[in-house]
Each structure stands twice: as C-alpha cells, then as structure tokens.
Amino acid sequence: MHLFSRVAVLSALTCAVALPAQQAATLMVQADKSLHAVSPTLYGLMTEEINYSYDGGLYAEMVRNRAFGRDWSGVKNWYLDNLGDAQATMKLVTDDGPSDALLGSLRVDVTAATSTAPAALRNDGWWGMALKPGTTYAGSFYARGDVGTVTVSLVNNNSGKTVATATVDGVTGDWKQHTFMLKTGDRVEAGSANHLLLSFAKPGSISLQLVSLFPPTYKGRANGNRPDIMAMMAEMHPKFLRMPGGNYLEGDTVDERFDWKATLGPLVDRPTHRSPWNYQSTDGMGLLEFLEWTEDLKIDPVLAVYAGYSLKGTHIGPGASMRPYVDEALEEIEFVTGDASTKWGAVRAKLGHPAPFPLTYVEIGNEDNLDRSGSYEARWPQFAKAIRAKYPNLKLIATAPVKHGPQPDVVDDHYYKRAEEFFSMVDHYDNADRKGPKIFVGEWATREGAPTTNMGAALGDAAWMTGMERNSDLIVMAAYAPLFVNVNPGGMQWESNLIGYDAASSYGSPSFYAQSMFAEALGTDVPTTSITGANKRFFYSVTRDASKLYVKIVNASTEPQLLDVKIDGAAVTGEATLATLHGNSRSETNTIDDPKHIVPVTTKLRAAAATHRTVAPLTVEVLTLPLK
C-alpha cells in the first residue's frame, strides 16, 4: 500500500462518525492524581553476539575472518584468485604470527606472477562489501615476507572492474603492520557486490594476519560501528545498554566466556573466541568499545559480570575456586568507574579514555535460573558481598530469585512469547509484591515473524509495553531481545528480531517502530485511569509530564474500536498529535527490499476530535495531548 493510501485509510478509521452504532470504550483519566512515577530508565538496549549482530552487523569491519580461523574446509572466507598464468598456494601456519594472541598466520607461496597477471588473495566480506561513491575506506594488515609490493584493491563482483586501489611497500622478513586507504570514485555505484583483493606481482612468500578494512564509522570512531545501525538505535530513545549480552557473557564453557581483559588494547592483542552461536567472535567489540557505544548514544551501561556458570552446564563452586572470578568482576568495575589513580582506571586511561564511565547497575551472571545444579544460591552471595563492600553505591541485579544472603536490588525476568500469550499477561505485574526487589525485564520479545518481526508481533509487543508502563514503579528497566539480525542466508540463528540488515542497508521491523513510539512519549508520571467497554484485545497506558498527556493505545482486534477519552483534573486544549502504526494483517511486515512498508504516520487533530474517535483494527497509537 502506498503511503498516501495508508494515510487515507487511517484518516477514515479515526473519524468518530465511521461506525455510529458501535459501542464505545470509555477511558477515564484523572490527570491530577498520580499513582506513581514512571521509571526514567524504562526502555533500553540488550545485544549479544547472535545473528551476526556484532561481526557482520553493528561492528563495521568489512573483512570476514580477518584473523584466519579455519574449519574442516580450510581457511574460511579466503580464496586464491590468480590472474592469467599466475600460480600460488596458501596454507595456515600455526606457529608464526605477529603477537602472542595471534600466533598463527596465512602463508601464501607465489611460484608464478607478473605485474599483468598477479597472484591474488580474495575476501568476499560479510555477504559482500558495501561501497559508496566518493568514500574513503581505511585498511591495514600485518605481514612479513619477500614478495615486495602488495596491491590492495576493491573489485566489483559483477563487472570485475577495480573501483579503488592502493599499494603497500616495505614488506620484509619481520612482522609489521601496514596501513592503506582506498577511495572510490564519484561514479561508483553504491552496493554490496564487491570484494577485497590482495595481489602479488612476483614470486615469493608472504605471511599475513589481521587483514582489516573499515568504512566511515559512527562519529568517526576508530574500530567503530556502522552509522546506519547506530542511528536506528538512537531512534529508539534508549536509556541504557545491557552489556556484553546474555549467552555471550557466559559462553558455552568457562574458557569461552566474555573474557573482558582479552578484549582490551590493540586488535593484534585480542585472541578472538568462539561465541555460543557457533561462530568465531573477532573480539573487536571489546569492553571499551561497548562503553564508547554507550557514550556515543548518551546512555548508561548496565554491566553484566561473569558469575561462574556457562551454558553447557559447567559451574564453578563458591569459595576459593570462585575467588579469581569475583576479583575479575571487581577489576572490571574498576576499569569502568575508577579514576586514573586506580590500577584498571589507569589501564583505561592509557587506552585513550581518562574519564570514568557512569555506572549504576551491575548484573551478576545471566539466566542463572537455567543452572540445574541450583548453585546460584551459593555463587550470588560471594559476588554480592564483595561488590557491595567495595562499591556500596552500585545496585545489583540477580538473574534468578535468591532466598539467602544479600537481597538483590533488582531481579532480571525474561519473556519470549507469542502475541496471544502477551495479550493474556498484560496485567502480569499489576498485583505483584512491591516490597521486594525491583524488576528488570532484561530480555523480552513477541516471537512472530522472521527474520524480523511482523505486525502481529508489534501488537503483542505494544500490549506488553502498556503493562510495563503501568507498572513502572516496579519495572525499572526493560530491553527487547534480540536486537539485530543479518538477513542473508545463514545469518540468522534466532527468529523474530527488531532490526534487520545486510552489508549495505538496514531497516526496522514493525516492532521497532512500536518501541520507538512508546519510548519517545515516556512521560514522568502514571495518572489514575480506568476503562470500560473495550474489546478483549484492546490495551492502553497513560503517562504524563508537566505539559503533555500521552495516551498509548493498542487495538489488536480485527475490528475497529470507538473510543472516548475523558480527562479530569487538567484542561486539554489546542492541537493534539497522533502517531499511528497500522497493518492490514498480522503477517504484514517490513523487509530489506521493502523497509518502509509499515511505518508510523503522524497527524495533527483538534483536541476534541482526538478524544472521541475510532481506533483502527490492528493498530498501535500514541496520542499526545497538550495540557493547560
């Protein structure tokens, strides 16, 4: 449906006289009677290395398998691409590399090559390498050998034409990092059908490691992130980032956990490690990069520390065996918050960030309710006591209920449901105990649609968010998961994600827009409300601030709903703003090829008309009313 026709449909459905015989729902709002404040940190971000979220996604590295990992088929994603009669072989060497972290390298032995028919090594990137006209790409590699000059090129897959090239001299018998810049011409066609080529014009041998290429990044960060995906996260109006993620924190085994110390410093000193979703993480997205990510979006980190349990069931017993991991957590907190006079604050300062980062919440572990041994009851106190002794101002999040030892400030609840399940549990927290810990809904999503969610999922998500907003005295934070998915074949391990992308572009699902609409109109207080006469799939929340009333409406029914909003305790005058997200069916969605199929439409209404009208079926609305 074209945008203008969608607007026309919505305008017709919001007309108060569309269905004069229909029973109206009446929403009563006592605007001057606040039930409680809205948590100012209610909506945030949670990511982890799944669906190629970092490598092949947010992290802007264009070279795939830059550190030459291998499987049964050989060195993955690297191919010989010799021209003419050139001849070369390649093999992985395990005992020759530029650092203790990267002990191996790829050796290319060239037996025949000329300047017109060079031997070459090709990398196709993460399902392509996205290029734009008139753009400079920064590259580097470590090498030693005797092939002389290395020519580095970006080549179009379809035409075979070189679109950017540079030469690197000075490759000798000693390991050294070499840098280069590749600039595309103004007539280069934007797209991802490109590859990187390293060419050798004479016989000899060269050993290579850490071949890297970056496009322009968000805010120009070295080793930074894709601007388009960062901008989409900013559009969600988040308040925090839960880092470094859930399963990614734990790893399948203790050795495969997120070892934050191994992610610091130059890339050549980062050994890489296997993620729980069966591919190798470059560790380019290290602890400091996570923290800089929060800085760039002007949000706060929620730091998760490893607590001795990994996904395949291994856990470390409390006591002396656990002490090194507790110390590791304390040192990590010091890296984040310590000034340059502290040991790990000094390390952070040496890496280029002298100022400490803000930190309020520390999460101990991840989904420890899945630990069948029940060991969290003994592991939690050891971490909680140590952290509170050294950092009494920090608030601690438990990832499972605990009966003994220090009580957590917050407990992390996770929900992955279908839309109808979320409809039925919107009131889940309405009568929850307010005397215990606060709640962090650290992972949640309506799992409908693939690779990204559809309109039905957006309705489930929005309905659930109305319940979280009404209970935001108890629920202090919430984060949708997973946030990202690479939509290429083989890029997805988990269905129903918020933001999809390929090498060249990204898009938001209908759920993405529902999240953005709600977070933008958060408000500061929840006034007293009640509703009568609504259909069984009609959900709402109301918040306000000093000058506006925000009415969030979800009509998940396939029938329109006439609505009267009656407001006492404040005058509503002037022009109202109505943001509407509407689908023709629950299966309707956005895709990489049709990224704006379902997007919010914003209209202006007279306040009187805005409070008496028909809400379209399969619709999420945010009505903003000016208060006097």
From TrEMBL:
Enzyme type, top EC level: hydrolase
Molecular-function GO term, any one: alpha-L-arabinofuranosidase activity
Gene Ontology biological process: L-arabinose metabolic process
PANTHER family given in the database record: ALPHA-L-ARABINOFURANOSIDASE 1 (PTHR31776)
Alphabetized Pfam families for the sequence: Alpha-L-AF_C (PF06964), ASD1_dom (PF22848)
Protein name, as recorded: non-reducing end alpha-L-arabinofuranosidase
Keywords: Glycoprotein, Hydrolase, Signal
Superkingdom: Bacteria
Signal peptide limits: 1-23
InterPro entries named among the record's database cross-references: Alpha-L-AF_C, ASD1_cat, Galactose-bd-like_sf, GH, Glyco_hydro_b, Glycosyl_Hydrolase_51
The EC number(s) this enzyme carries: 3.2.1.55
Domain Alpha-L-arabinofuranosidase C-terminal as annotated: residue spans: 442-619
Annotated SMART domains: Alpha-L-AF_C
Species whose genome carries this gene: Terriglobus roseus
Reaction catalyzed: Hydrolysis of terminal non-reducing alpha-L-arabinofuranoside residues in alpha-L-arabinosides
